[in-house]
Design goal:
The protein is an alpha/beta fold. The chain has a 5-stranded parallel sheet, sandwiched between helices. Strands 10, 11, 13, 14 and 15 form a 5-stranded antiparallel sheet that branches. It has a 3-stranded antiparallel sheet with strand order 8-9-12, with no helix packed on it. A hairpin with a 2-residue loop joins strand 8 and strand 9. The longest helix is centred in the N-terminal third of the chain and has 20 residues. The chain starts with 6 loop residues before the first helix and ends with a strand.
């Protein structure tokens, strides 16, 4: 074989080889976001044509919807292809990338990435989606789409998106393990402790009646472009509004966007208007005004999973050999979050919208601990749960109107945490209501 003597050709071949080798490596050097990395990168480990749906959107997607909750309830295989503060002009590129391996999957599009009447793409948001996007021709188009919307960016500035090493070279010293190892254990379900523990009261807005506007705003024009792409590529799509606290301008814009979506014949599921039907407790089910904690996410996921199975005919694949990895992942996920959830939350049996009892501070009573609470109207009984060995366990039930229980099965000097759930009897069994997700603690 003759050696290549031309310096120009040798230089070009070196550059091509460098890009092929370097881009996948340099992709780990961007914005330090394990969620973006896991959601965007790990999809490549799922076998072709095995996903029922892929949920694309911003951070509310991976707070509200947990793929393994959907699997646990209905056996549907989904993926969160979501990135915090995802720019709306990136959605088309994410859809195109997903369809390379999952062409038949339903594309679920979160409204949160579409809702702003005007959107300013900033450098950090662009990096968050670009840096961990799989190396491909679609990535080059994504870079072009987003960088042309960055104000004051020169052609030279844009190089940092093609070669993140230019900006993030110092990250070699603090790279995390997740950069080098795929986290297939939890199928893009959220695992951050903040998601499981934190509580924030929210106020959900009521959708206003709006007159038709004679001209379309920036968000509406971007939506029309996206729907035109869906039409041309025969993309099946469902648009979902998350039940979150919203600015008035965002809520009004959602109303306008819904009109366009429905007029074009695409499905739109407004979960904001179904908060009561979901059983969301606005005092206990959120960790901030835009994201649910694990308890609210279970309720949202249960409703959406059943909706998808019913409306789109997705088959239950639990127990099938081809989907064993999903069964295994669901079992690991349940164990992972068991310290934060009560056992009945995993049951598909419906919940009831009874408010959480107000717990009083537990008191020492002889050699035991006395747990007491305020009455809940409509409750037939109360289930008392205690956290022990890192997991919640039901230890007793009292019949209404009894509002106290003494736990004598305690060890001196150990601290115990309790919560109480109001219940109502039904023909099919016991219906559980809401509860104080952190509970109250006392040392014996």
């Amino acid at each position: 074989m003759r050696a290549i003597k031309s310096p120009l050709i040798r230089c070009l071949l070196f550059i091509i080889a460098f890009v092929i080798i370097a881009i996948p490596v340099l992709g780990v050097l961007g914005i330090d976001s394990s969620e973006a990395f896991i959601h965007l990168q790990d999809l490549r480990y799922e076998k072709k044509n095995t996903l029922d749906a892929v949920y694309i959107g911003a951070s509310d997607v991976h707070a509200f919807w947990q793929p393994l909750f959907g699997w646990n309830d209905c056996g549907i295989a989904t993926w969160n292809y979501s990135v915090g503060a995802l720019p709306r002009h990136a959605v088309r590129h994410l859809v195109a990338q997903v369809r390379k391996t999952q062409p038949d999957a339903l594309m679920i599009i979160g409204f949160s990435t579409l809702k702003k009447p005007k959107e300013k793409v900033d450098e950090a948001n662009a990096h968050r989606v670009i840096d961990y996007f799989p190396a491909s021709g679609e990535k080059l188009q994504l870079i072009q789409t987003l960088t042309e919307r960055l104000e004051g960016f020169t052609s030279l500035d844009k190089l940092e998106f093609y070669l993140p090493f230019i900006r993030f070279h110092s990250r070699w010293d603090n790279l995390k393990q997740w950069v080098f190892e795929a986290d297939e254990d939890y199928k893009s379900s959220k695992t951050a402790e903040l998601f499981m523990n934190r509580i924030k009261r929210v106020h959900l807005p009521v959708e206003p009646e709006l007159p038709a506007e004679p001209t379309m705003n920036e968000a509406e024009n971007a939506l029309v472009e996206l729907l035109d792409y869906f039409d041309a590529q025969h993309v099946r799509a469902l648009f979902v509004v998350s039940p979150q606290q919203l600015k008035d301008s965002h809520l009004r814009n959602i109303v306008r966007l819904k009109r366009i979506i429905e007029a074009r014949g695409y499905d739109c599921l407004d979960m904001l208007q179904k908060a009561a039907e979901l059983g969301l407790d606005l005092d206990m089910d959120y960790y901030d005004t835009a994201h649910t904690n694990v308890h609210g996410s279970m309720k949202f996921s249960r409703y959406l999973a059943n909706y998808l199975a019913r409306e789109y005919g997705f088959a239950d694949k639990r127990g099938l050999p081809e989907w064993k990895s999903w069964d295994d992942a669901a079992e690991r996920y349940r164990e992972l979050i068991s310290p934060y959830t009560l056992p009945f939350e995993w049951n598909s049996f419906p919940r009831i919208d009874l408010p959480a009892p107000a717990l009083k501070a537990p008191q020492k009573a002889g050699k035991g601990i006395l747990v007491s609470w305020n009455a809940v109207e409509g409750a037939d009984s109360y289930a008392i749960f205690r956290k022990q060995n890192g997991a919640w366990k039901e230890i007793a039930t009292t019949q209404s109107p009894t509002l106290a229980y003494q736990d004598d099965d305690v060890t001196a000097s150990r601290t115990y945490t309790y919560t109480v759930v109001p219940c109502r009897e039904s023909d099919g069994g016991v219906l559980y209501g809401n509860f104080d997700v952190k509970g109250k603690s006392r040392k014996a």
